[in-house]
Design brief:
The protein is α+β, with helices and mostly antiparallel strands. It has 13 helices and 38 strands.
């Protein structure tokens, strides 16, 4: 009898590769490898390298608990190769440079807070990066231990950010550090967040993403490195996502949109003319960057006219070559996996990417850009999955209201079609997120524990085009709810799915939908509701994104349509609920604040519903994936135990 993929195994036993970076000539790959110290319950992130075929694997770093963002130094062919990286081996964070051939890493600079988005200048003399800058504490002095917390006064809408907490006027600014001397200077001053600096080929300018006023949308900032003078690209309130300079520096290609539908178009910006033109619109695939695991997959110019883009199409990943002259896109490869971190060799020979699929977690694959063939070059999942098999999967479609709703089903590893199994409907967040061919550890834990897990991409899900993603606007709890019920009904047509034992679970928007569902129907025998949007009026005023996100999703502010806010809030219907419900919530969640879970808990208890409320101290919105190891394990175990209590 094979062992189960228990919550402890899923959280602690996998080695997960990430952020792969191909050498300029495609011969070598550096990457991060994340492991968990099971005794200390702490993550360790170290840098590794291997040949492009996966051979000659070796560990590059040994100091510090977190080493990240390895980036190749530029230089002429044959020059000694070094890598820059970020490490917490110094308090709190530093940039280091290390010769790949061997030798000690040399510290370039450090800060008392995190460093991110490092980028070498074309001549290798400087590194640009971003870090927090507090105009009231420019020297990053630490407060006295016995000092009273400072009074917080703000006049900004964007005064807090989930995961970072209260921000005031603290913003991520771009710094440039000299590699030889360590001398650094702050390049940007505007009190907005800057990110992902990219050097122009001549080294005179940086392109960076900058948030709009009060964090509404994002634009492209072109910054003169010598003077700091900044020119903005893209409309206020629009989106600029990923971008890359052309080899001659005359153009910048980027994905983005003039409004917010959560599905990008591809634009080409003429630097000299200061003009953007739409190159590809109404795409069936989404070229946006922060897909799947949230890692950046920047586009890359393969030659002077073709640009490689990774994107999402339905539940799959596509690699496209976009021709900037004739505005066409050529499919290089489509795979049954989810978009994740990817980089390209400078010579245009290969791409290397992180592979997550239903039977793999955190592996690396190399793609030949000439013919689209792919080769898996790591096998870190094997030592876990050889003795603890993963869930079996099936994909199916549901036709409803003129739309095709894509859906998946996970079955227990020991699935027997002659038996019947309880069924759990899983609902993604967003609502413009999406599910697909992924290795989701909560789904795997439920399947391993004997559940059939059903999940789908109802209208509003990303990666199906502008029209599909925007159909959820002003209709939360409407047709999206009916799509999910239709998917579940289709799954229950299978004789091994027990219609008398149905559960539902969701997080964030999935938590909203879970809270909505139990107020609409009594068909579910158990529910697990994570970080819900329970009351849309209070969410609008307390979430870090409530105003800008809410007014796109809900069709306007509360005062303009109070009845809509009320009737589409789960709080309005909670008195009708009867489903035993577990609520899980991070206490430091600024995205769906803890008050949403508190309101739901009180409403259900007053309605006489069996309810438990699990609160995770210090937990931000994504605590399920980046919180303390103990909290991640507890969250999964608690969900499985809740369903076991009512469905097994």
């Amino acid at each position: 009898m094979p062992e189960q993929l228990t919550p402890e195994v899923l959280v602690c036993s996998f080695k997960v590769a990430g952020d792969p970076q191909a050498a300029p000539d495609g011969s070598t790959i550096i990457y991060t490898l994340t492991t968990v110290d099971k005794d200390k319950k702490q993550e360790q992130v170290q840098l590794w390298a291997c040949d492009a075929d996966g051979g000659n694997k070796r560990q590059l770093t040994h100091e510090g608990a977190r080493n990240s963002e390895p980036r190749w130094s530029p230089g002429p062919e044959g020059a000694p190769q070094s890598i820059a990286f970020v490490s917490n081996r110094v308090d709190k964070s530093g940039i280091f440079v290390m010769p790949l051939a061997g030798g000690d890493a040399r510290e370039i600079t450090r800060h008392n807070q995190g460093i991110a988005n490092i980028a070498w200048s074309p001549d290798g003399s400087s590194i640009a990066y971003v870090t927090d800058y507090d105009p009231d504490n420019p020297e990053e002095e630490q407060p006295d231990d016995d000092a009273a917390p400072p009074v917080r006064v703000t006049s900004r809408l964007d005064y807090k950010v989930d995961g970072l907490g209260y921000r005031g006027d603290v913003r991520k600014q771009i710094f440039v550090v000299d590699v030889a001397s360590g001398a650094r200077r702050k390049l940007t001053d505007d009190v907005q967040d800057y990110g992902h600096p990219r050097w122009s080929p001549d080294g005179k300018r940086l392109a960076a993403q900058v948030t709009g006023v009060d964090s509404v949308g994002s634009r492209l900032a072109l910054i003169d490195v010598a003077s700091g003078a900044t020119q903005l690209v893209g409309p206020q309130g629009g989106i600029v996502d990923i971008y890359a300079w052309s080899p001659d520096g005359s153009q910048i290609i980027y994905s983005g949109e003039e409004t917010q539908t959560y599905h990008g178009d591809i634009w080409l910006y003429d630097v000299a003319a200061d003009e953007s033109k739409a190159l590809l619109t109404d795409l069936e695939w989404n070229p946006g960057a922060r897909l799947g695991g949230g890692m950046i997959a920047e586009p890359a110019w393969i030659d002077d006219r073709r640009v490689a883009f990774q994107g999402a199409k339905g539940g799959t990943t596509v690699l496209q070559l976009v021709d900037t002259v004739d505005g066409t896109a050529e499919l290089v490869r489509e795979g049954n996996n989810m978009p994740n971190a990817m980089s390209f060799a400078a010579d245009g020979s290969i791409a290397v990417r992180v592979l997550n699929s239903p039977d793999r977690r955190g592996e690396l694959a190399v793609i030949d850009l000439a013919n689209g063939s792919a080769k898996l070059i790591t096998g870190y999942s094997d030592e876990v999955l050889e003795t603890r098999p993963q869930a079996l999967w099936e994909r199916f479609d549901v036709e409803r209201d003129g739309l095709t709703i894509e859906a998946w089903m996970l079955k227990p590893p020991s699935f027997d079609p002659e038996q019947t199994y309880p069924v759990v409907l899983e609902i993604h967040g967003g609502p413009n997120g999406f599910y697909g061919f992924d290795f989701n550890i909560i789904h795997q834990a439920l399947a391993s524990a004997g559940y059939i897990v059903v999940y789908a991409n109802p209208r509003g899900s990303g990666s199906y085009g502008h029209d599909f993603s925007s159909r959820v606007f002003s209709d939360w709890g409407g047709e999206d709810y009916l799509d999910l019920m239709a998917v579940l009904d289709e799954a229950l047509e299978r004789p091994y799915c027990d219609e008398t034992r149905q559960g539902v679970r969701g997080y964030s928007y999935g938590g909203y939908m879970t809270a909505w569902i139990i107020g609409q129907t009594d068909r579910f025998k158990a529910a697990v509701c994570g970080a819900p949007c329970f009351d849309l009026e209070s969410f609008w005023g307390t979430s870090d994104i409530g105003v800008r996100f809410g007014e796109v999703q809900f069709g306007g502010p509360h005062h303009a349509q109070p009845e809509w806010y009320e009737q589409h809030s789960p709080s309005y219907h909670a008195h009708k609920a009867v489903t035993p419900t577990l609520i899980v919530h991070g206490e430091a969640d600024d995205r769906c604040p803890i008050g949403q879970g508190e309101q739901m808990f009180i409403a259900l208890k007053k309605a006489g519903v069996e309810t438990e409320f699990a609160r995770y101290p210090g937990g931000a919105h994504p605590f399920q994936s980046d919180g303390p190891i103990e909290h991640r394990i507890d969250n999964i175990k608690r969900a499985v135990a809740w369903f076991d209590r009512y469905l097994q």
